[in-house]
Amino acid sequence: MISELRVNQRNKEKPDPKGKYVLYRLQIHRRFQWNHALEYAVNRANEHDKPLLIYEGLRCDYPWASDRFHRFIMESMQELQEEAAGRVQYIPFIEYEPGEEPAFYETLASEAVEVISDEYPVFIMREQNNRTAKECGVRYTTVDANGIIPLEATEKAAYNAYFFRKIVQRTFPDFYRAAPDNDPLSNLGNRESLDLPDKIRDGAERSRNDLEDISKCISRLPIDHEVEPVASPGTRKAAIEEFEDFIEHRLDRYHEEANQPDNSAASNMSPWLHFGKISPFEITRRVFEQQPGKWSLDDLVDQNGSRGSYFSDDPNIESYLDEVITWREVGFHFAWHEEEIDTFESLPDWVRETLNEHRSDTRPYVYTLEEFEQAETHDEIWNAAQRQLRREGVIHNYLRMLWGKKILEWTPDPETALAYMIELNNKYAVDGRDPNSYSGIFWCLGRFDRPWPERKIYGKVRYMSSDSTRKKCRLSGYLQRYDSLSQ
């Protein structure tokens, strides 16, 4: 049963009994498995005894639209189209000119009994949901399938991970037991074929043809063609394969080696988590299967927010689940309660005060956005991290912290540093434009952290250096791999 905390009826409209179908507008949770929003849509379709129509639109005018993100999404569309065959009607729509997609969606919504969509607290989805709730002529409901702890389960934004971890440890067993259905489409009752208007049928057919040759389609779109696609496919199949490789080869050394760039034990799940191809529930379930000996949820003991031995006595399982649940979801809950998460003013009072006190400190280096973007600083570690971001759409997690800290140090003021970090991250990172990636950026400026001994430029914000990173991390292979001459 789906918790009421996950369901947000956004307007006062009633369902239209004359509608032809229940419409699920897929925006971010691009999967047919382990999806509370899809499960709710199936339940509503069954209640009305109507077919379910799943719609996914891809605009060309979203911020930072590029070949990189378009291909990742379109590969997902290809996969969903194949999975939907014979089970549910799935309509993709690829926009060529701004305004096409909203008009296409409005036509679909005009014949719906009601509309269900994905809850998501940042980027264009938040604005789209707010606008649609006002304009939609039928009931518009958004469902939170973002994480294990529902967004409505917290009353305010957590100011650090310790505070949020206390909430996790107190509520996790109950919310984890309320996992979404592994295959909600298997419960769909009415599977009648739909007679759709010519405009809808023609638009869907055009998009299906475009998905047969993604490269050709993308080349004709008014998006940034300089940010090239990454090697990793945007499919659920690719996500599952990568995660199974993590379970088999990296989980057992995660605690000790996740921060080692040369031979990282990271799971690499963030791109697929961001685009909704894999669920935190199934990740957690699969990791729990690796618990040594007999184990059950009843074995969990509240640690009152302390790290270690809550999820498991195995430090690898404990560390990984704390990262996937506590650290990932604290960003979602913060964004849910604080809309202006991407501004300098959203930082804690102590951070703004200390950075303001040191804004006139002399910077040892000052680089332009273009110099940062092209990895043209004096620091080979920083340059290597930026090259990884440009080429692969990710930065090794430990080095991403150093990457952000140094931008703060090498820009004229904290506002400029913040603007540069957001621009570079959101332009190149496959997992960018996400509550969790904003957490990473703002952690570099002090969010979710505590005051440290005061120093120039940083004030009381935590300091990191390349010299200390060299001492802590094995970097020779990483630096060679992302050298300026490497391909």
Q: How are the SSEs ordered, and which strands pair?
A:
Elements: E1 7-9, E2 21-25, H1 36-48, E3 52-58, H2 67-84, E4 89-94, H3 100-109, E5 112-118, H4 123-135, E6 140-143, H5 161-177, H6 198-211, H7 214-219, H8 236-249, H9 254-257, H10 270-274, H11 280-288, H12 315-337, H13 349-357, H14 369-373, H15 380-392, H16 397-409, H17 414-428, H18 435-443, H19 466-472, H20 476-481
Parallel strand pairs: 2-3, 2-5, 3-4, 5-6
Antiparallel strand pairs: 1-6
Helix pairs in contact: 5-12, 11-12, 12-18, 15-16, 16-17, 17-18
Describe this entry's structure for a reader:
- By secondary structure, the chain is α/β, with parallel strands linked by helices.
- The protein folds into three domains: 1-146, Rossmann fold, CATH 3.40.50.620; 236-337, Alpha Horseshoe (Serine Threonine Protein Phosphatase 5, Tetratricopeptide repeat); 344-481, DNA Cyclobutane Dipyrimidine Photolyase, subunit A, domain 3.
- It is built from 20 helices and six strands.
- Strands 1-6-5-2-3-4 form a six-stranded mixed beta sheet, sandwiched between helices.
- Helix 4 links the parallel strand 5 (112-118) and strand 6.
- Helix 15 packs across helix 16 and helix 17 runs antiparallel to helix 18 (435-443).
- The chain is globular.
- The N and C termini lie far apart (50 Å).
- The mean pLDDT is 96.
**What is the CATH topology assignment of the largest domain?**
Rossmann fold
CATH H level, superfamily name of the largest domain: HUPs
Report the principal-axis shape.
globular
Number of helices: 20
Give the C-alpha Rg. 23 Å
Unreliable spans are none
SSE string, helix = H, strand = E? EEHEHEHEHEHHHHHHHHHHHHHHHH
Number of strands: 6
Quote the average pLDDT: 96
Largest sheet report:
6 strands, mixed
CATH architecture of the largest domain: 3-Layer(aba) Sandwich
Strand percentage lies at 5-15%
For the biggest β-sheet, the strand order reads: 1-6-5-2-3-4
User: In the CATH hierarchy, what is the class of the largest domain?
Assistant: Alpha Beta
State the helical fraction.
40-55%
- Cα separation of the termini: 50 Å
Tally of structural domains = 3
